[in-house]
Every structure is written in structure tokens, then in C-alpha cells.
Amino acid sequence: MSDAKRPTKQELLSRRVEHIDIKRDDVRPLVRQMSRMAFSARDLARAADIYDRMLADRECGVILCLAGSLISAGLKQVFVDLVRNNMVDAIVSTGANIVDQDFFEGLGYGHYMADERYKGGLDDDLLRDLRIDRIYDTFIDEDELRVCDDTTKIIADELSPRPYSSREFIREMGAYLKQHGLKEHGKTPDSIVLAAYECDVPIFCPAFSDCSAGFGLVAHQHGRGDQPKVSIDSAKDFYELTQLKIKNPTTGLLMVGGGVPKNFAQDIVVSAEILGVDAPMHKYAIQVTVADTRDGALSGSTLKEASSWGKVDTVFEQMVYSEATLAVPLMCGYAYHQGAWKQRPGMKWTKLLDEVPASA
Amino acid sequence: MSDAKRPTKQELLSRRVEHIDIKRDDVRPLVRQMSRMAFSARDLARAADIYDRMLADRECGVILCLAGSLISAGLKQVFVDLVRNNMVDAIVSTGANIVDQDFFEGLGYGHYMADERYKGGLDDDLLRDLRIDRIYDTFIDEDELRVCDDTTKIIADELSPRPYSSREFIREMGAYLKQHGLKEHGKTPDSIVLAAYECDVPIFCPAFSDCSAGFGLVAHQHGRGDQPKVSIDSAKDFYELTQLKIKNPTTGLLMVGGGVPKNFAQDIVVSAEILGVDAPMHKYAIQVTVADTRDGALSGSTLKEASSWGKVDTVFEQMVYSEATLAVPLMCGYAYHQGAWKQRPGMKWTKLLDEVPASA
Amino acid sequence: MSDAKRPTKQELLSRRVEHIDIKRDDVRPLVRQMSRMAFSARDLARAADIYDRMLADRECGVILCLAGSLISAGLKQVFVDLVRNNMVDAIVSTGANIVDQDFFEGLGYGHYMADERYKGGLDDDLLRDLRIDRIYDTFIDEDELRVCDDTTKIIADELSPRPYSSREFIREMGAYLKQHGLKEHGKTPDSIVLAAYECDVPIFCPAFSDCSAGFGLVAHQHGRGDQPKVSIDSAKDFYELTQLKIKNPTTGLLMVGGGVPKNFAQDIVVSAEILGVDAPMHKYAIQVTVADTRDGALSGSTLKEASSWGKVDTVFEQMVYSEATLAVPLMCGYAYHQGAWKQRPGMKWTKLLDEVPASA
Amino acid sequence: MSDAKRPTKQELLSRRVEHIDIKRDDVRPLVRQMSRMAFSARDLARAADIYDRMLADRECGVILCLAGSLISAGLKQVFVDLVRNNMVDAIVSTGANIVDQDFFEGLGYGHYMADERYKGGLDDDLLRDLRIDRIYDTFIDEDELRVCDDTTKIIADELSPRPYSSREFIREMGAYLKQHGLKEHGKTPDSIVLAAYECDVPIFCPAFSDCSAGFGLVAHQHGRGDQPKVSIDSAKDFYELTQLKIKNPTTGLLMVGGGVPKNFAQDIVVSAEILGVDAPMHKYAIQVTVADTRDGALSGSTLKEASSWGKVDTVFEQMVYSEATLAVPLMCGYAYHQGAWKQRPGMKWTKLLDEVPASA
After folding, report:
1. In angstroms, what separates the C-alpha of D30 from chain B's closest C-alpha?
2. How far apart are CA B219 and CA B114, in angstroms?
3. pLDDT digits (tens, 9 = 90+) for D168-189
4. Which of left, alpha, beta for C248 (phi over 0: left; psi -120 to 50: alpha)?
5. Backbone angles phi, psi at C153, to 5 degrees
6. D77-99: string of b/e by CB count within 10 Å (b at 16+)?
7. Cβ of D294 and A38 within 8 Å?
8. A to D CB pairs, distance under 8 Å
9. Does the ipTM exceed 0.90?
């Protein structure tokens, strides 16, 4: 790019990604029409119906799994609404969604729309110079992301030194937003971390150091030297989520993307068995993904395959082959407007975990 | 399936997956021909050349990243050969590859070829009954997998209770194989965990509880009750890998699949910066994947995009769009037969990590 | 499948695919929200806006390109509505969509929803026995499809023997539906072929023998022996479509899927040049597809790549990465409810082609 | 791109794509190793074995189907070798492979390797200015392509005016290469069109006007005005290919890519039935593709699905999920070095078609 045409950082970061609000438009007539079509439309309609069944099943705890760049893509408000309306009881996610993207926005920052021309990658050198990070067609101010890293260090520094589950640490992040969010960064948008804190919905990031919080924790541990320090015990995450399965045997999985969150959440059925409890398979399971089945990787593996592992029952399971920004608003919007959640108090699983022995 | 045709477990688990040996066939003439073609063939040849350059660059530490079901698919021996021939200095992997598949085979167990008819998933109920787990076209004996889970518990039970990096724990798994493998399970095949133990190649699984070891650790922690216990500190993994980057600034990434390992290994450049060290971007980076770029997820994101984050340099980077079982033997076979590794002592990074303060 | 559970043909063909009606639900608020998100949602919203611009541009002729199993999937009514509301001026399609699926339904037949279990393919032997054809999750009565083949033979038999463009032959199919449809097969649903006949929208199938009509034409030619016979001149198709481009230089492409229709419609810019006319590139171009870009095939090739060939301008072009049943109702529904078509008389290109010398 | 860095056409067209020679390297040991792995490697090895079985089955006629940009990608010599060694008896292809790419090279022209930076599409305006056409990572001189178009017009002009099957026209192209190739354009590389002409292997392009020949034929028809002219009868193609199936009932399909060629070749089983002949399904069928199954389109539809249509038998069928440049050399190289073709005279189907009544 010639210097004359070279845009400034301010110009590049001028159009903010806005989050879709599923409460506004009642998509049920559209989804119902899709239920009589074929291919992804029919699959999506069936997945939406299964999600509605999960919510109507008074014994079912709903576990939301998130992988991929979903929050930066404008889906944050969808998940916030699920939390605030008792439509989800636990979240298992990649760290990027929860920390780099959601907590980051909770601190008052935002994601920005990139022009089509940047997708191809040829101007990434320019972006590097301007300290702008790119996710396909989306920009992030790297300096703001550094503040997010630093904030996680501040949180770690204030905790008593011991192993924490990611769930415990993320609850502290929620408390931080509750206390500092508004004051320090002006009008704070709602966030999944804050909503989950307020609604007693536990959030697990099984690969927690693989995100902005990892940077903060590395800095914390480095700063402590030989002194006692905060550590993140991913086995404790697994233990806690397994306890939830044991105490609330009927469960459903609402999965967006695959990866670690999908595997981790599916595995708790087996984990319960290891602890000597004969927990049933996940009764409901739906997944939105574009991952291919043919490379044998977990992300695209069918939910039928998971049934061979004893993890997922096959009566109410549905894969939806779609990029998430298209399918999630329709699927979750359908369930929202169906309103089964209105009769649902929510499991308040954070409270239940407080009763689990703190040392696991 | 009618009962009459119903196969036995023994019949289903009769044809073992065998691991391809890249040392046998010199694929260089084939790959060189591919370098003058187009599309994936040319990309693969260029990636093979970049890997060869990494090995010829005496300052470059090579980090192998593994995601997807690679070991069960017959690629174990490839990675064992890379380790034993100083062609890789560190490994970052999903837990499934290292524990459920490689360590599992290290204990003397195996993976089995499934007939085409099982891919579709309609017989997964039968598999469930027989306690056979399925990965697309591959079978596993679930009872044997339980032994693998139990073995990780045995290892945890024998360790002094404190937070461990996954790298430290996996080294103990290597020591276990060294000591017990042959005796207890007959003729033990070589494994990545054992080879890495013997060759001082550290292995990191940033989401370590998301695998068979997670089951063992949950059982360990549960068994300990309120007593001190082993925990897995994923922040420590990140700290250790960052230290390697700081002490050996020139690095190259050899990535198979995306997911957490890709993100984690790319991130150490930023992590070093957080610790106040101006480390260079990864100088070389190649990735084999079938993930799509268009859903914005990290697994399929281009290496050019990573350059906007300051993580990967763009002179020697190459994405190869292929399922791993086809591309990896050609790419790694090419580099093996080129022989640049013969002049290469290997970084022995495990030794270097022993000098890092034990408490991080 | 055991005989006891073996379903009858009637049971399998009991739930008819129904076509989505974009006129019912105003999706504009939803699509507008998507325009501020990222990834496919934003791309879809931009594509919808470009389609609206095509319709508002009074000089623009809109060419709809169809590939993939779209009509059997429940999208027929969308395209019928585009035709009847002057939202499209010509159609280029695979034969399967126009003959096997649309004309077939025009004869009074239908497509049926298959249960999830049939997708995997393990019961295809049963389907073969029952003379049921399968398209992924959709069933067709093969006996009814034979009637469709026969009907195209009847039409061919009644024509004077000479080379026809597929466009001319399909017009005869429209005339047939107009005359016989209702009488012979009961209540006839609307169809693209009929609507296009009535609205003077030409339909081109450049690979016309590659469908049910091919069977009819082979039977016709076989029956004629050495006598003069009807033939299908695909060069004449190309000539006619090029004439449209020459007489109406401003054009936009609305493409669903890739394949021959995409290539054929893009090529008319070059074809005009070959005839000595300096026609402008297609001014607008949008494509919905899941085809990958990385295999170099035309179906997934970017519209930017087409600009290197001088076929498509790059100001108003957009690829949307989505399976068609999800994206098409939103994209076309948006344009329908915007209503730019209300000011648009439609090009009535069939009339214009009647002025082209009959012998090309 | 700033003017200073702007490359010349000559610089951009300097590195020619070279065609891989499967005769050079015996890939059988590699493919045999792959047969015991999983996923695409095992599928590829099985497909290679099925191709070998086709060749060893003395009654089997082998039909090669080509879609995607295969010749420009460096696979031309593979298919030339299949033709010259009696490893294929008929070809069904997209026009682009046969005319724009193979015949084009037969005239002495070539394809060129593009640097990585051009893939992203941001320099397509420059390419447009320089009259360079791009296929992903490959360049073509547009002026040379115009000569190819013109040559097809010259051929059409010299033929007696009547409807031709594409097969008949392509044979004339072979004759043209035989006569003029060397003299007019210097040293002519071998080509599929020439080899097929010399070896009596018929080539069908069911959408023949959808390529460079379409331009030539449009110019021809335009030049003839009201005079009799050459036309291309795609129904005649279908009739001819069906006759081959009738006269040689045992057939196998070797498919690279999907699209019209796949559908067309599969359909001849049904077409024979329409003509009153009870022809068996294709006994063997293998396909290399990256197309997804989940959009219901034909390109990615499984061969099991084709069995529900009565087109393909399911005992010896195999899909291979891979980009063609990686899988085709291994699959065809395996069959070449197995040598079953040495006992095989080849069907010489062009001669058989000469016995079909000329008027169909």
C-alpha cells in the first residue's frame, strides 16, 4: 500500500462490531418454515426444537460450549441473554471468547469491522505497524488488549496464592467487572462474565492459560518469583464440572464450534463413571460447526460417534453445518421466543459448586 | 443390525492400525515434482522446504504442534522419528494425542481399523454395547483405555503434591514407560512420550485435563480428599514455553491441525514481550489443516493473520490444505531424507527447563 | 435392517418437503443486525444489499445462477417469487434443478423428507429395492421421475426437428405445463419453468442433457433412428445469452452454488468481446457457496479472481460462505421486502431473444 | 501496488507449471503403508486398489471423469499416461480441462506459477491490466487463450455444418493437433486431446460451450449468419456414452472432482434402462474430492447415495477426501506401477462409436 493511501489507526478502528439482539425479532415463523425444507435449514430447525426441549425439561441442566471467535463476531449479546434468562446453567469455552473478547468488552473496549480488502492478508504488515490485531474481517486495538492482559494480572495479584480452577478465577473476573467496570472505563457494556457472575452460572475454560489471562498469569507468576503464587488447576475444572453432572444427572449440550470445550463437556459422563457414579449420557446435544467430519478430528466428529464413547444419547442430537453467525441467532432466537425459559428458575450451579470441598 | 450378523468385539478389533515409516521410502523426488505444480501439491512442497530450512538453521528451535486424531491414524512413528533424530525440540499437543493415543500405545495397546460401514454411525449403539469407542474409521477398546486412565492416577498418586506443569507430568509418564512399559505389557512399541523422555524434548498439553490424564487426575484429587494433591498448572506450561522462546529466540513452528496447540505456541512471542523481553516473531511457520478460513476461527486462520498479531513472520510461512495422513508423511519424509538433521545436535530443551526456577 | 422394521415405500414418502415463502416474514430487521456483525452474517447482509442495488439500478439485468440441489431442498418458491416479481431477468441453471426437480414438481410430484438415519447411506440398498432415490436427506419416487423423463420425450417428439437452444426447449416445457399441468396431474404447484414461461424470463441449462431431459432426448433421438430429430445446441445457448449481454450491457449475477452456471454466465463478457463488442464486466456479483477456494476449482473461486479474467467488477461483489437453504431465504427475503422491484418492469428477455435470428 | 514495484507481464509469466510424471517414482510402498493407516490415507490406498482391480478386470471399461482445474495444476501428464497405457477407455470432462487447458497446452502454450501474494486477489486489477488470467495460484496469458478460442473457430469453420457430439468435435481437435501442432507452435508438448485421438479414447464434454470452444463456436455461428452451421448436440453425447455402456456393460468410474462429469457418467446406467436395456450399475467407482456432503450437492454426494439411484454398486466404491494434486499422483501412480494395464489392450471405444449410426 502506498503511503498516500495509508490509513490511520483511528480510521481503521472506526466502525464497531455490534452484537445481535435475538429478543428483537421473533424468528419462529422463519425457523418453522425451515423445518420442512432440507439440508442445513431443516437441521437448524430441529436443533432449535431440541434446545427448546432442553429448556422445557425441568430436570435438564444446560451446558453451553463455545469455540471459535464468537464474541468478536457479534454474538456476545446472544449469550448474555441466555445467561440472564436462565437458558444456560454452565459455560465451557475457549479462553479467547471469555477473556480476550468478552471480558475485554466488559472493560469498555470493542471490536471493529475491517474492510473486505484486509481479509486477504496482504496488509498485515501495516496492521503490525499500527498495533492492530486482525481476526479475519475484524480489528482489535492491541494496546487495549494489553490492558486486558494487565487486568488479569491485577486480579491474580490480589488473590491468595493457591491452585484455582479456571471457574474460580473467572468468577473473580466477574467480581472485578461488577466493582470496577463502570467506574474505570465509562459506560460498560454487559458481558458474559458479568452476567454469569450475577446469575450464578459457572464458566470453565479448560485451557485457561491459552488466552489473555495466560499473559496475566505468567506475569503474576514471574513477579512472585519463589514466593507462593496463584496457579490454575485444570484438573480441578474437570472435577467441578463432573460434580455438576453427578448432582444433576440430566444434561444437555448446546455447542457452538468444537475443540476443547466440546471434548471437555462430553467427557464428564465418563469422568463421573471413573468416580464410581453411573451418570447417564448427555440426554440432549446440538452442535453448530463447519468442521469437516472426514479428518477424524473431534471438532467435526458426529454426535453419533460420541454415543459410541457413551457420552451422548442419540435420540435428541443434531449437528448443524453452518458458520455460527448465521445459525446461532436463529437457533437461540427460536428458543428465546418459545419462552420455555420463563418457567425455569435456572440451576444456579455456582452455588452448588460452593458446596463442593474447596480443595476439590 | 440383526443379531445373526452381529460381530463380536474380537472380530471388530482384529486389524490393527500400523504406523507409517517415513524412513523407508525416499519421497524427495515426488515432492520435488510437486513443487512445480499448483494448489496443495506446490504448497506442500514449499512447506517441506521450509521445514528443511528450519533444520538447517542452526539457531532455530523447532516446535511441533499436534491437534486432531493423529496418533490413532497411524502417524505415531513419524513423530517418534522426528524426536529421535533431533528434528523437533518441543511438542505442544492436545491431550488426546499424547495420552489417550500415544501413551496408550506405549502401554502396549493399539488402535484398530473399522470397516467402511461403521463411519456412518448407524451401528454406534452396538459399539456402545461392546465397549468399543470409535474415531471415524478407527476403533479403540474402551476397557484398555480405562487402564490408561488408571495408570495416570497411579503416576499422580506417587508424585509429591504440588502444582505441576503438564510438561513435568508428561515427563513422569515417560519415566513410567521407561520403567514399567516392557515388563507389564509385553513388547512395548516405541512412543512419543518415551522418545521425548529419552531425548530431552519437552511435551506440553495446555489443556491437559481434557484427556485420559484428566480422568486419572480427577480420581487422584478425589481420592486425596482434603489432603494435599497434585494439580496441573497450565499457566506454568505457558511460563516454561515462554522461557524457551526467551532463551532461544529463533523458532519455527511445524503445526499439524490448529486448535489450542497452534494458539498456545504462537502466543509465546507476545508472552515474552509481557515479561519485558523483545523476542522476535516465529521465523518459520507451516501448518497442515483442512479447517476453513471463513469462519474466523483460529484453527483455519492464515499465518499472515498471525503476523498482524506480531506472532509469525511472513517470509517463511506456508499453509497446506490437506488432511494430515496424506501431507505429513510427504512433508516430514522430505525433510528426513534431506538429512539436515544430521548436523543438528537437538536443543535438549528439557535440560534447559531444569534450570528454570522450579516454582516458575 | 431387519425385515420386521422394514418400512414401506408409502411410509418413507409421507412427509413432503415444503417450500419456504419469503413473502411471509420480513427479515430485514434481522439482516440489518447482521450487517454490523462479522464473518458470514456480515457478508450475507452485504450481499443482500448488493442484490437490492441491482434491482434499484434501472439499467441492470439480473441473471440468476443455480447449482446444487436447491429445488428439492425447499427453495422453489423463492425463485418463483423472484421471477413473478420481476426480480430476475434470466436464469442459468443445472438441468437437475430445472427439470428433475422444478418441472417434476410442476407435473404435480413432490420431494420427501428422509429421517436422519438415511443420511449415512447404510440403507441405500433398501431404497434401491423400493425404487426410491435419495439426495442426502431427501427422497424421490423413482417411478414418478420416470414420468418426468417420458414427458420430456413427448415434448421433443412434438417439436419440428432442428437444433434448439436449451432455452427454447425449456420454453416448450413451460408451454406444456401451462397446457397440461393441471389437467393431467391434479392441482399443480407453481414452478419456475411455468413462471418463467409466463413472465418472459429465459432459462438456460448449458449442460442440458445432464438431467431428466437428457433421458427424454436420448429416447427421442433413439426413436427417430435415421430420421431428422431434435438436438440441443449448447453453443446456441451461449450465443443467446451473449446477445442479451450485448443488448443490455449492465448486468448483475445472483449466484447460488458454482459449477457450470457460474462459469457460463461469467463468460458472456468475454464472449461479447469475441463478437467484437466491448461489453462491460458484470457490474454486480454475489455468490452463496460452501465450496472451498483452495482447490482452485471454479465453484469456490473468488469473484476477485473473476475480475482478473475481465468478467466481474470488484466494487459490488460478495461471496457468502453458507449452505444455500440458510442464506438464500435471508438474502432474497431482504431484497423482496425492500421492494425495489416494485418500480421495475422486468426485462422480458424472452421477447428480446425472439428478435435474435432464429438460426443464431 | 506502487508503480515502482509493479512487475511486467514477462516477469509474472516466467515460471512454468510442470506436469508430474507418475512413471518416475514407484509410490507403491508408500501407498501400501497408507493402507494400514486411517482417514484419507487409508481411503486413498483403497481407491488405488480399486483402480487396480478395474484394470485387472478384463471386461471393465474405465471412464475417467475430470472436474476442477486439473490440467493447469500440473496433472496433464498423469492423464496422458493413463490414455497412452490403456488405463482409461473414455473421458468425461469439463470443457475447461480439455480445451482451455489441455488443448491450449497442445498448441504450445503454458501455465505459470504465481507467487503466494497473488492468491489473496488484491492485485487482480494489475493482472486485468496486463491481460493475465488467474486461477488461484496460477497465471495464464489471456492473449494466448484468445488464440485457443480462435483455433476452435477455425476447426468449426472447416467442418460440414450439422449437429456434432462434443466427442466428435474434440476428435477433430485431436486431428488438428496431429496435423498442425508442431509446425505452427514449435515443440508441442503431449496432450490428452492428442493422445486420446491417437489411442481411440473418446472424450466427452457435456457442457461443451462452457469453455474456450464455446467462444470459438459462438464466433463460428455468428459468422455463418443464416447459413447452415456447426452445432453441438449434448444429447448426442449422452446417447453415445450410453451406447458404450450398452455394448460394454461392465464399467468403472475414476472420478476427479464432481460436477457435470460425475453426474453425466453415473447417469448412463439409467439412460440404458430408458432405451430398454437392463445395464448393470457401475461396478467400480472412486472419487477424489474436497466437496462437502452436507450441502446435498452432487459433487460431494457419496457413492452410496448414487446406489440408491441404481447408478453405482457399493462393493467397490471409495471416496477420497483430498485436493486432487496430492491424491491423484499417488492413486494413479500406484495403479501404473502395479502394471495390470500391461495385459490390457484398451477398449478403443472411438472405433466402437464409429459403428453407432452417425445420426445418433
Report:
1. 7
2. 31
3. 999 999 999 999 865 445 566 8
4. beta
5. -65, -45
6. bbbbbbbbbbbbbbbbbbbbbbb
7. no
8. 30
9. yes
Which residues are CB-neighbours of A4 under 8 A, at least 6 positions away? none
Contacts of A298 in chain B (CB under 8 A): 68-69, 96
Sign of the four-CA dihedral B297, B300, B301, B303: positive
Indicate which residues of A carry an active-site annotation: 311
pTM listed for this prediction: 0.95
Q: Specify whether the CB–CB gap between B91 and B170 falls below 8 A.
A: no
Are C137 and A39 inside 8 Å of each other by CB?
yes
Burial of D4 (0-12, 13-18, 19+ CB in 10 A): exposed
- CA A223 → CA A157, B239, B356, B360, C78, distances in Å? 9, 12, 14, 10, 63
| pLDDT single digits (tens) C162-204 | 999 999 999 999 999 999 865 445 566 899 999 999 999 999 9
DSSP string covering A175-188:
HHIIIIIHHHHSSP
Q: What is the pLDDT of residues B23-57, one digit of tens each?
A: 999 999 999 999 999 999 999 999 999 999 999 99
The predicted model gives A47-63 an average pLDDT of 98
Cβ atoms B13, B107 nearer than 8 A: no
- Cα angle D228, D233, D236; round to 5: 130
Residues C301, C306, C309: CA angle, nearest 5 degrees: 135
Q: Do residues A72 and A66 lie in contact, with contact meaning Cβ atoms separated by under 8 Å?
A: no
Confidence band of B356 (pLDDT split at 50, 70, 90): low
- Please give the radius of gyration of chain C, using alpha carbons only, rounded to the nearest integer: 20
Q: Tell me how far the alpha carbon of residue D287 is from its chain's centroid.
A: 13
Paired with B282 in beta bridges are B312
Helices C212-224, D234-247: crossing angle, 10 deg rounding: 80
Q: List the subunits that have 3+ CB pairs under 8 angstroms with C.
A: A, B, D
**In the block, which residue shows the cell 456479483?**
C285
Residue D277 cell numbers, joined: 436395456
C-beta of residue D229 within 8 angstroms of C-beta of residue C360:
yes
Residues of C in contact with A39 (CB under 8 A): 69, 73, 136-137, 323-325
Q: Do B322 and D323 touch (CB under 8 A)?
A: yes
Give the pLDDT score at B357.
56
What sign does the CA torsion over D139, D144, D150, D155 have?
Answer: negative
Closest CA to B202 of B58, B301, B63, B51: B63
Q: What percent of chain C has pLDDT over 90?
A: 83
Residues of C annotated as catalytic (active site), given as ranges = 311
Strand order across the D203-204 sheet: D203-204, D90-93, D61-66, D251-256, D282-289, D312-321
Tell me the count of A-C CB pairs closer than 8 A.
141
Catalytic residues of D: 311
Q: Pick from A40, A117, A321: which is nearest to D122 by CB?
A: A117
Strands (E), chain A: 61-66, 90-93, 112-113, 132-135, 138-141, 163-164, 203-204, 231-232, 251-256, 282-289, 312-321
Contact: C260, D290; criterion CB under 8 Å: no
CB contact under 8 A, D360 and C222: yes
Residues B259, B291: Cα–Cα separation, whole Å:
10
- Write down which chains contact chain D via at least 3 CB pairs under 8 A: A, B, C
Q: Return the amino acid letter for A190.
A: D
- Dihedrals phi, psi of B356, to nearest 5 degrees: -70, 140
Three-state DSSP at A278 gives coil
DSSP A286-350: EEEE---STT--GGG--HHHHHHTTSEEEEEEEEEES-HHHHHHHHHHHHHHHTGGGG-----HH
**Chain A contact residues (CB < 8 Å to D):** 2, 38-40, 117, 119-122, 292, 294-296, 321
Give the closest of C121, C122, C295 to B39, CB-based: C295
Checking DSSP bridges between strand A138-141 and strand A112-113, what pairing results, if any?
antiparallel
Say how far apart CA C325 and CA C58 lie, in whole Å.
29
